Amino acid sequence: MVTPWEVKGEIDYDKLIDRFGTERVEESLLKRIQAVAGELHPLLTRGIFYSHRDMDWILDEYKRGNRFFLYTGRGPSSQVHVGHMLPWVFTKWLQDVMDVRLYFQITDDEKFLFRDFDRLAESTRVGYENVLDIIALGFDPERTRVIMDSKLIRRMYPLALRVARRITFSTVKAVFGFTPSSNVGEIFYTSIQAVPCFLESVRKGRNVPCLIPCGIDQDPHFRIARDVAPQLGYFKPALIHNKLVPSLRGMQAKMSASDPTSAIFVTDEAETAREHVMDAMTGGGATVEEHRKYGGKPEICPVYHYYAYFFEWDDDYLKEIYATCRSGSRLCGDCKAELADKVVSFLDRHQEKREEARDRVQEFMLTEEELPEHEPA
Ligand code: TYM
Question: What does the alpha-carbon distance between residue 376 and residue 205 come to, in Å, rounded to a whole number?
């Protein structure tokens, strides 16, 4: 089961493509992206960004000089974990190579409505904490506007209303599984997540293509936004989806803030992160003897998967790890220790940049003055 709020069981990513009706990122698309961007990001070549909607159209428009804008987001329920960073790292790359604007939505309203917090102020506070991680990734302040929903709602509301009027309860019930006990804010919420898809068109007073890099779990919101878009006279937002980083506890679950032992938070202390990595499940044999004899199973090993997220490790090195795990010569303890070192040095660097971001928050926040008072009729 995959919804924006819950992912249960091992995900069959091929099935999701069929069920959601998206398209696979094929070799031919990679070639086209490379031709336009001049390079390919490892998240593409390693098959982590694997599905899309209308990427071809985005590239066609771009080549004709009709630049798209990027839109991505965060629901601030907790500190950020390394899974959340994937779509953002990729978004930053797209911003750099394509030279485009980005709207980054922080849905503090969502996390209040879905009961992650009892007070909206708490959700907003965590949202500003998360903004530090976004800035630490190195987004360009000139081209990046962060939307804190509760602070910008006056300008977003007219657009949210136009979206909401075109979404029925039976649609959101079918897409998200709402029940009669769901609160009415939850039922309305998808209209808010749709707003940034059209915000640049409203700001510019002409239709601007939108590209959303995000985890596949967020796709249901944008299926609805895509249905509504033509009725409002806007382009449908295009998407490119990443697979979800698995839990440290095993491939059957995704890394999730609601289970801290499943995750590495980017604010974790070095020792906590190291412990979490060293306690991770692996695809290794039950004993060292068995492992040496029969070898491990990297396919089902979260630790092996994590190696792919550290881009300094090149494809040849990943192949070597795969082969030595399979043959039984590489032991899980060594594999985890090497990953733990890498994670700790990443956290060190990130946390330093995160601290430097503290006095830069306002530089990135979208203000009411930057948006027109009412949407064009
Ligand atoms: P949130 O905060 O749950 O997740 C933020 C982004 O991280 C992705 N993600 C993951 N990616 C890889 N591995 C994981 N284990 C993992 N868990 C989450 C999500 O798919 C998402 O891209 N409602 C949204 C906030 C939002 C948004 C958006 C997200 C508002 N507008 C536009 C993407 C695009 C949310 O709660 O995301």
Answer: 7
